[in-house]
Amino acid sequence: MMHKLPRSFYARDTIEVARDLLGKYLVHVVEGVERIGRIVETEAYIGVHDLASHSSKGITARTKVMFGPPGFAYVYLIYGVHHCMNVVTEKEGHGAAVLLRALESVRNVETRTSGPGLLCKAMAIDLHRNMHDLLSDDLYIADSGEGEPVTIVERPRIGVDYAGEWAARELRFYIKDNPCISKK
DNA sequence: GGCAAGATCTAA
DNA sequence: TAGATCTTGCCT
């Protein structure tokens, strides 16, 4: 039994949300087809003081969604090639989000999902899904209701070497021994 | 209005 | 290990 996560789930500490998202299900309905993937890897971008976070640049046309209310999607294009999907967390105005890095295919997901770019490609997520409400009926995250325990591994984030000491912080989380992880 | 750089992926 | 490829943000 799938249960859509409430707004209050996202309105918490970003690291807690990043850890709790592991094992949850991302659902995207495209042209009547329901695509579902189990979240197995995330990264936390915890606020304006986090130099690896886009929000550290302040409020701009691109980052304003990160400063909005929690439970919304923040989608952007990286390297002109790939899309990355984030989930806005904390209270409105905080500027934090959780990046979804890898999924485990559950239903109607054909291509690989090990990495932010591939994840969005497989789930058919693009810039048009930016600022989409995750409490809507066509793009949301749900709990299986089974409360299955997972072993969480903490590692430094990927591709943020420019962020100084923040690059070394262990803000990446994934499910131990899961074969769908993007990188060890 | 122009320019540099980026939370990536694939092929060689 | 380099190239694809385009939006954002800052500079002029």
UniProtKB/TrEMBL annotation:
GO molecular function, one term: DNA binding
EC identifiers of the protein: 3.2.2.-
Repressor in keyword set: no
Keywords: DNA damage, DNA repair, Hydrolase
Origin superkingdom: Bacteria
GO biological process, alphabetically ordered: base-excision repair
InterPro entries: Formyl_transferase-like_C_sf (IPR011034), MPG (IPR003180), MPG_sf (IPR036995)
Sequence similarity: Belongs to the DNA glycosylase MPG family.
PANTHER family recorded: DNA-3-METHYLADENINE GLYCOSYLASE (PTHR10429:SF0)
Name of the protein this chain belongs to: Putative 3-methyladenine DNA glycosylase
Organism listed in the record: Paucimonas lemoignei
